[in-house]
């Protein structure tokens, strides 16, 4: 909230504040009817949404929800911080940095899904998870995750973070994920760049488990060419041992 608005709110008494808020509600309603308590709680309120945000911030940084506030928020809504649904929520907010929500990001995301209370967002968790089953939405979430999770001082994502995010997004859906993760463990790669990141998703979606449709002359990043070679060699060694 801008400083001038905070000062104005401080100077206004409770009655003035109530009149101001009620007037605004009347002006935005068709029919200018009076709002009952049930209507007020069932409809989305930006004022209530901001007040909820403030429960997770400190007086020193009232417009930034940090790691401690994030932990409390996750506890309140009953979701582990590393749950993929938190990534989807961050995507809805277009949050810039993992572990932080600004007031602007919070309002952007929660206004879109019309949530201003714990109960309301709990009722939307299944909807947020369902977005992962939509190919277009998932691709957008996957691409968003790269810039969201990487260290902002680096252009690439460190391998530890990349593997954790790949596990979160592809671990349950890509049949070759465990092999790819093992390949990364034994590879020379210490970081993943954005081109590699995006192509991993396309590879997981288009290449058969037996690699039968893999084109050695395709335009895949070298990392994925090396993964295919590594996988074929591993299968060959397994066959010889058996």
UniProtKB/TrEMBL annotation:
Localisation per UniProt entry: Nucleus
Pfam families: Cullin_binding
Keyword Protease among UniProt keywords: no
Keywords: Nucleus
UniProt region (Disordered), positions on chain: 1-40
Coiled-coil regions listed in the entry: none
Domain DCUN1: 44-232
Main location: nucleus
Gene Ontology annotations for the cellular component aspect, listed alphabetically: nucleus
Biological function: Neddylation of cullins play an essential role in the regulation of SCF-type complexes activity.
Protein name as it appears in the record: Defective in cullin neddylation protein
The organism's taxonomic lineage, starting at the top: Eukaryota, Metazoa, Ecdysozoa, Arthropoda, Hexapoda
């Amino acid at each position: 909230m801008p400083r001038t608005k905070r000062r104005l709110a401080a100077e206004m008494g409770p009655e003035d504040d109530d009149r101001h808020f009620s007037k605004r509600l009347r002006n935005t309603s068709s029919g200018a009817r009076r709002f009952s308590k049930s209507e007020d709680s069932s409809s989305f309120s930006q004022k209530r949404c901001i007040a909820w945000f403030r429960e997770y911030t400190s007086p020193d940084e009232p417009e930034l929800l940090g790691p401690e506030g994030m932990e409390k928020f996750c506890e309140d809504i009953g979701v582990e911080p590393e749950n993929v649904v938190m990534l989807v929520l961050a995507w809805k907010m277009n949050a810039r940095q993992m572990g932080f929500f600004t007031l602007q990001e919070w309002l952007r995301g929660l206004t879109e899904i019309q949530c201003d209370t714990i109960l309301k967002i709990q009722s939307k968790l299944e909807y947020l998870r369902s977005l992962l089953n939509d190919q277009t939405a998932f691709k957008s979430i996957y691409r968003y995750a790269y810039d969201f999770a990487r260290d902002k001082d680096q252009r690439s994502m460190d391998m530890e973070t990349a593997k954790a995010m790949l596990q979160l997004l592809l671990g349950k859906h890509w049949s070759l994920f465990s092999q790819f993760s093992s390949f990364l463990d034994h590879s020379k790669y210490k970081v993943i760049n954005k081109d590699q990141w995006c192509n991993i998703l396309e590879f997981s979606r288009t290449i058969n488990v037996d690699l039968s449709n893999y084109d050695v002359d395709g335009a895949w990043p070298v990392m994925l060419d090396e993964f295919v070679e590594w996988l074929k060699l591993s299968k060959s060694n397994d066959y010889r041992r058996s």
